[in-house]
């Protein structure tokens, strides 16, 4: 090319990143407690789970399953999953509502 000509080359680059881990929560209800289990296709070993409870509850856990009962606050419990590549799901998209069980009525002594 001469000084007054410009040569432009264009190319396409495709970057394949790792997708975020999938997330689903299975609920196992009980009489006095309910268990939430995070189900994912995340690669392992090294998959990490980080649960948070409703705002102001202070609830956190780092296990795959959590068990909730009447001492836990009502509201959404959400889990963030980190896979072996360091990719994370959107924790706001993986939540399950919890309503504490009603306490059993008190019986008077006979």
Biggest sheet strand line-up: 4-3-6-7
Q: What structural category do the secondary elements indicate?
A: mainly beta
Mean pLDDT: 87
Radius of gyration over all CA atoms, rounded: 24 Å
Largest sheet, if any? 4 strands, antiparallel
SS summary, helix count: 0
Give a concise summary.
This protein has no helices and 7 strands. The chain has 110 residues and is an all-beta fold.
Break the fold down into its secondary structure elements and pairings:
Elements: E1 24-29, E2 33-39, E3 48-52, E4 60-61, E5 65-69, E6 75-82, E7 95-98
Antiparallel strand pairs: 1-2, 2-5, 3-4, 3-6, 6-7
Q: Can you give a write-up of this model?
A:
This protein is an all-beta fold and 110 residues long. The chain is built from no helices and seven strands. The strands form two sheets. The protein has a four-stranded antiparallel beta sheet, with no helix packed on it. Strands 1-2-5 form a three-stranded antiparallel beta sheet, with no helix packed on it. A hairpin with a 7-residue loop joins strand 3 (48-52) and strand 4. It is elongated, with a radius of gyration of 24 Å. It starts with 23 loop residues before the first strand and ends in a 12-residue tail after the last strand.
């Amino acid at each position: 090319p001469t000084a007054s000509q410009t040569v432009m080359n264009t190319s396409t680059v495709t970057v394949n990143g790792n997708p975020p881990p999938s997330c689903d929560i299975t609920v196992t209800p009980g009489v006095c407690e309910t268990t939430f289990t995070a189900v994912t296709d995340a690669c392992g070993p090294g998959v990490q789970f980080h649960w948070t409870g409703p705002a102001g509850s202070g609830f956190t856990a780092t296990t795959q399953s959590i068990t909730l009962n009447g001492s836990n606050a009502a509201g959404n419990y959400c889990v963030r999953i980190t896979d072996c590549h360091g990719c994370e799901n959107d924790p706001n998209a993986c939540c399950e509502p919890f309503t504490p069980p009603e306490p059993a009525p008190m019986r008077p002594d006979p």
